[in-house]
Amino acid sequence: MISFIQENQDLLEEVVSEEKTLSIYNLIMDGGIGGQIIITILFVLLAVALYIYFERFFAIKAASKVDKNFMNQIKDYVSNGKLEAAKALCDTTKTPTANLIGKGISRIGKPLEDINTAIGNAGKLEVYQLERNVSVLATIAGAAPMIGFLGTVIGMIVAIHEIANAGGQIDIKLLSDGLYTAMTTTVAGLIVGIIAYITYNHLVVRTDKVVYQMEAKSVEFLDLLNEPV
């Protein structure tokens, strides 16, 4: 008798354990075709967001690396009239700051205002390159939660449809597909949106640092040209 009760208790614990355990995969699969489509779209958006973030992160990180002696070498070359050597140094450095200085060196001999304008135009191109595809992250940050809410609306419509067709006898199992769709897509949309929002702002901050660096070095170069001979 005792062993029989113990076996029933063990069986009951296993059933309760199975009922409490629900994997993410099961949540997605139990959400119906509508929920699966929404989750797939959000997964693709997440993959795109992560790819853009890491690609831009390493590109911006490389762009921010400038040799501390770079400007000292430029000053020495320009002061001694070695413009070709200064231009070659900028070409081999291959950073946005070096590109701006190289553009300015190539215009030496023209009015200072023309040099300043050339550097400014080159700076806009460099900033554009740094910010390439970053706006896509902002779009994903705004669109992902809305796509998730779209899944919520679809799920609630499915749930209400099941209630209407239940004939007054509501079975929770009939509502599960709609409710799973509503909850899982909302959570997935918010997760993707939060990740995209954080990565976007992080890239913006790092880009601003590089832009500030470019501006500082450009001013330093223009001051060098303004120094009396």
Automatic annotation (TrEMBL):
A Pfam family of this chain: MotA_ExbB
Family: Belongs to the exbB/tolQ family.
Keywords: Cell membrane, Membrane, Protein transport, Transmembrane, Transmembrane helix, Transport
Keyword Mitochondrion (UniProt): no
Source superkingdom: Bacteria
Residues in coiled coil: none
Keyword flag Protein transport: yes
Protein name: Biopolymer transporter ExbB
GO cellular component assignments: plasma membrane
Limits of the MotA/TolQ/ExbB proton channel domain: 94-215
Chain segments annotated as transmembrane: 33-54, 134-160, 180-200
GO BP: any one term: protein import
Location within or outside the cell: Cell membrane; Membrane
UniProt main location, coarse: membrane
Membrane topology: Multi-pass membrane protein
